[in-house]
Design goal:
homodimer, about 375 residues, alpha+beta, Immunoglobulin-like, Rossmann fold, eight-stranded mixed beta sheet, six-stranded antiparallel beta sheet, globular
Chain lengths: ~375, ~375
């Protein structure tokens, strides 16, 4: 039965539908679950049952679904299992899933296209601030090795649950940069992706986790995860340890005009703390779905908003205390406008952080701080 | 139930025993399977049933087991499932498993110790010989960035089923090199780890596989897997494309006296083909469990040896035809002794390739070729 020449699972059909297969003669139930995180839903639901044939092979066809990069798992008798037909895995610090690519216009930016590719290095650097040596990923653009040029630098910070691998694997940052640079839409640059969890020196699949990391899969934030937001510990190490190291080890344009910082969720909050306490270092600043309630002394509990049933994510009932926020970033006033080349905020309208995001917008408006805003429909 | 503060799975106890946990209230059976590949067996068997408690949480304690790096999977109602408590995964091109480390003297060489660490870069290089650009991993030793020194180079080839990630993830080459260099047992060197499958430009989790890659999990070699042994295609690209690229892009000592080549299994066969057809390039040569029957025109079928029941691996009934072997590596005679700094052969005495290995030894003896031999007990 297993020797039959079935197509490899998942099989992506020309119309964008997808067939999954799993040989599981002893299972009572098998389903496939979309674990993409809400930004890319399946039209008929994010968990679908597979059907057993008389040989014990389960299958289901979904879609057509939108061209996109998805992640999924099988659920076998209630337990998550990876697809044995698919060795492509994405993970962050707390979960993993199989990768599913339905090619189309939306995936072109993320695909490995026939363009010049940059390199990604896993590099250890000394961190006197946090102790010991720590691991980071550094993208150098196509042509870096052969040229003698110096390049601008983007410090790109991951979200909670991620680590130094998150932007290169789940985030597909190298592919996006290769493609943007090839199209002339981004200047060739060095991108530094650190591990933003101050109590973790390297990703958990590289160094074993500390003994008191909680049981994964409980869905409950642990004291360590909250501590791991690492504000202000991680930003301190970024500016004291990482930036000087990068400016020595790489051919950088080591000036604030050519140094950017951006981050997702937890990394967005770390970005604000880092940038606005170090305006001598950074002049390009971006937050993607910034997780500002992770900043210490900042979060306040709020009533669920009227559209709470539509919102997703963990922070529907949280916002920020403007005074607490300004205590952490006291330089956040109209004087920054002349110093910044860009302050960019992005969020999805159904992100559970949208209320917080609006509160930050109002705070920026009240302080006279200018910013570019990208509000994307849905979870984005 | 899931919210209970159970230890993270797997829990490694001080005596070297290990407890696994899985919440699976709807499962009929759960087992844990050692997938380390035979070199590291568990004393009470490599598949053990977990026992269900009244809350649907399954557990089992194994061992004490030898300090070692293991891989394992859960088997839930007959289906392989990764441990949701353990984000550490090892994979090659055809399978994946969770990593389990039982620390002890045997793991010190593989651990991330508090020593200076080299960097590992994922690099694309042009390959006119095989077409397009291809991805490889390059280890540069501690101090490379800051020094202006030039370094010797080791070309390190993976086994069948592996790809350019195999030596850095499953093989833990960066850790081994860091530790050997720190102890003064290896000279700081650059290590180049290519993708040795000529029909695969990058690992399958980076680029989707070609459409005719067979269903994984059938256990049957496919025409593509055999073609993928890539002898002589891959060695041609290694010497024409990779070596010149590395000697330009890195500060190498670009001479045969400071250039080594070594490989595991399929990579051992590729090493022989590469080295002995390019003695102007390499003077240090090593084969680990060389898969010589993969060389075209070489394999012969033989009767199972007397100790067949003890042997493991796919090649118990295969050996080599010396004439076919010498047609592929016609320079393999006593004249190489003066040119080589080292020819090193390693194998486990219970490896299914041991008969082949002995045939190669006899061939080398007959040709007057000197070599160093490491025969390790067991599967090694």
């Amino acid at each position: 039965m297993l020797g039959q020449q079935r197509p490899r699972s998942p099989q992506v059909h020309a119309d964008g539908s997808v067939t999954f297969w799993l040989a599981a003669p002893d299972a009572k139930s098998v389903a496939v679950r979309n674990t993409s995180g809400g930004y890319a839903d399946w039209p008929d639901g994010n968990e679908l049952a597979l059907v057993r044939d008389d040989q014990g092979v389960w299958s289901a066809t979904i879609g057509p679904i939108e061209p996109e990069y998805y992640s999924y798992v099988f659920v076998v008798d209630g337990v998550q299992a990876l697809d044995p037909g698919n060795v492509a895995i994405v993970r962050d610090g707390a979960r993993y899933g199989n990768a599913l690519r339905v090619p189309g216009p939306r995936t072109v930016d993320y695909d490995v296209n026939d363009v010049p590719h940059g390199s990604v290095a896993h590099v250890w650097y000394p961190s006197p601030t946090l102790g010991g040596t720590r691991r980071m990923c550094v993208y150098t653009p196509p042509g870096y090795e052969a040229s003698g040029d110096r390049y601008p630098v983007l410090y790109l910070l991951h979200g909670g649950g991620g680590d130094e691998d998150a932007w290169t694997t789940m985030g597909r940052a190298p592919q996006i940069l290769d493609n943007l640079i090839a199209r002339g839409e981004a200047r060739p640059m060095i991108v530094v992706m650190t591990n933003g969890n101050p109590f973790q020196r390297a990703s958990q699949d590289y160094l074993p986790p500390a003994p008191d990391v909680p049981l994964i899969g409980t869905g409950q934030p642990s004291p360590r995860m909250v501590r791991n937001a690492g504000i202000p510990e991680f930003p301190e190490s970024l500016v004291r340890d990482v930036v000087p190291y990068v400016d020595v080890a790489y051919r950088t344009l080591a000036a604030r005009e050519t140094r950017a910082i951006a981050g997702l969720s937890m990394g967005g909050a770390q970005t604000f703390y880092t940038a606005f306490n170090n305006l001598d270092l950074f002049s390009w600043v971006a937050s993607f779905s910034g997780g500002f309630p992770l900043m210490p002394g900042v979060p306040v509990e709020i009533a669920p908003p009227a559209n709470a049933s539509k919102l997703r994510g963990p922070d529907i009932t949280r916002s920020i205390d403007p005074e607490g926020f300004l205590r952490l970033v006291p330089n956040l006033d109209s004087s920054v406008n002349a110093r910044l080349r860009l302050l960019y905020l992005a969020i999805g309208t159904e992100d559970g952080l949208i209320t917080t995001h609006n509160a930050v917008k109002h705070l920026l408006d009240a302080q006279g701080v200018k910013y570019a805003l990208m509000e994307l429909p849905g979870y984005a």
